[in-house]
Design a protein that fits this description.
Layout: E1 10-14, H1 19-30, E2 34-39, H2 42-54, E3 59-63, H3 69-82, E4 88-91, H4 106-137, E5 143-148, H5 161-184, E6 188-194, H6 218-232, H7 238-251, E7 255-257, H8 263-275, H9 287-298
Parallel strand pairs: 1-2, 1-4, 2-3, 4-5, 5-6, 6-7
């Protein structure tokens, strides 16, 4: 789809209250699209809806957790009844969590995989059939699905295990979705967004963590501090990444990176796999960071 074809079309965005989701909503609103905005945060969603309506966009808001299968099902049914299949589907909602992988509690796994993986899976399973039906009914209909993963879906940085696992799964899901869709339709494209450290609010995901569960472990507190520092130092904005995402949709680009320079580490990992090597030191070029992390974890 080109930018001129977006006016009047439908964009469905999860995690729409902040970060990439909010910036994607702003671009879609400027393009004259109708917006389905989904977020678990009451205040952030309300602010996003008010902003986009003030910009002249039609908005259907849904306050829910993408991990909630029943809520996602009800939302999908309402979208289908009121507006029909989305033309652009952004399975974007995500949360961050770290710590040594054996210290992640059952609640950690359920929360992170519930949002980061099952949120994407729910979006794909509920809306892809809807989009395929629209495509079959109209040969001129075009759609595109963008799933947000992370560079952590292509790498395995330490002290981030549960997050890494969730994002590797999203990479696998999205690559498979591309192959599966290519077998049955030429009318729906797929892209995989793999951002690195960008200021989106994900480092403060614990604000949306369900009540209950164990308190943060020492390694999780270390990971939180390092994540905060890395995100705050990021030089690429969420708005820039959203612009790149829409540009990728227009050209049919599959992989979308916020920091292409990080691909050198991906190449090293691929060479490790091909040559059967032990995984390379992720801090080979930044030994001071490795020593800081090692000292913090051993002193915890």
């Amino acid at each position: 789809m080109s930018a001129t074809e977006w006016r009047g079309k439908i964009a469905l965005i999860t995690g729409a209250g902040s970060g990439f989701g909010l910036e994607l909503a702003r671009i879609a609103a400027r393009a004259g699209m109708r917006l389905v905005l989904v977020d678990v945060q009451t205040d952030a969603l309300a602010a996003a809806v008010a902003e986009q309506r003030a910009a002249g966009a039609q908005v259907l808001p849904f306050e829910l957790s993408v991990a909630d299968a029943a809520a996602m099902q009800a939302m999908a049914q309402q979208v289908q009844q009121q507006w029909g299949a989305p033309h652009l589907l952004f399975n974007n909602a995500g949360v961050g969590a770290g710590g040594l992988i054996w210290e992640n509690s059952l609640e950690d796994w359920q929360w992170v995989l519930g949002v980061n993986l099952m949120g994407v899976a729910h979006g794909v399973r509920l809306f892809t059939p809807m989009m395929l039906a629209a495509a079959q009914a109209d040969p001129s209909w075009r759609g595109h699905i963008v799933n947000t993963a992370s560079m952590a879906g292509l790498l395995n940085p330490p002290n981030m295990g549960v997050y890494n696992v969730s994002k590797h799964a999203v990479v696998s899901l999205t690559e498979t979705l591309h192959h599966d869709l290519s077998l049955v339709s030429d009318q729906i494209g797929v892209s995989l967004l793999c951002p690195y450290f960008v200021a989106t609010g994900i480092s403060q995901s614990h604000r949306n963590r369900p009540a209950g569960g164990q308190k943060a472990t020492a390694s999780q507190r270390v990971g939180q501090a390092m994540m905060d520092k890395a995100v705050q130092a990021g030089k690429v904005s969420a708005a820039e990444v959203a612009e790149r995402t829409f540009a990728a949709i227009a050209t049919g680009q599959f992989y979308i990176y916020s920091h292409p320079q990080a691909l050198a580490s991906v190449q090293t990992r691929m060479e490790d796999i091909l040559q059967g090597r032990t995984p390379s030191d992720p801090f080979a070029g930044r030994p001071q960071v490795r020593e800081q992390l090692r000292a913090a974890l051993r002193d915890k």
